[in-house]
Amino acid sequence: EAVPRAAFMVIGDEVLKGKVVDTNTPWLAKLLHGRGVDLVRVEVVRDDMGQIGESMHRLKAMVGKDGFVFTSGGIGPTHDDITYEAIAAASGRKLAVHAKTLDLMTAFYKAKDPPVDINAGRLRMATLPERCEVLHTHGLWVPLCNVDGVYILPGIPRLFEAMIEANKHRFVGPESFSAALYSNVAEGDLAAPLGGIAAANKGVQIGSYPRTAKEGDYLVKVTLDGRDKEQVEAVMKAVQEAIKIERHEQSW
Fold it and tell me: How far is CA 193 from CA 206, 237, 238, in A?
């Protein structure tokens, strides 16, 4: 079974300047991994038409016609919110007001106390690339716009997460099997045996990560990921035989 690939474009000068910390990337990576989709690239770009368009084409080529590209940020009401415009231009489309999104947004702002008018800035948030698929999440007026596999999302984490969760049935691949093994052997001493095991088992990804917390009951965490359960089990056994392991966890 083919493994679907995904890529993520984080859009915003505020991220590149350290004014905002991106928490959407680790959240999305974990969700996709758990659903059998390989996240193969993350790019952070400025609020710039050219950069957004170039990144979109690059990421689409990387994930293929059946893959997914996600974007976050740049869909608000201000002058620097240009994601819809940039994706539309890069896809050869024009922008148009989306009637259902406008209706939902109007109802949302009218329900405020006092009611809020839909001015030119707010109207920008309902002006989407033509011929896109528009998905709405229960309880939210903000649209999830899909332009040929490019899913345009807000940067606000609570909205980003809710909208992905509501549509996660779209993003699924073959089951992945994972294990984690914890050792008090120094990473420099693990390198040779792990390298040999990795060379002999190309179907399993082996990672080695020193403990970063000040306190803990291990020095190094070794992770295994693969789609063949028996092969992951065999590699786990090989690691346990080659290296003193204090404890282990597995996802099956």
Answer: 12, 13, 9
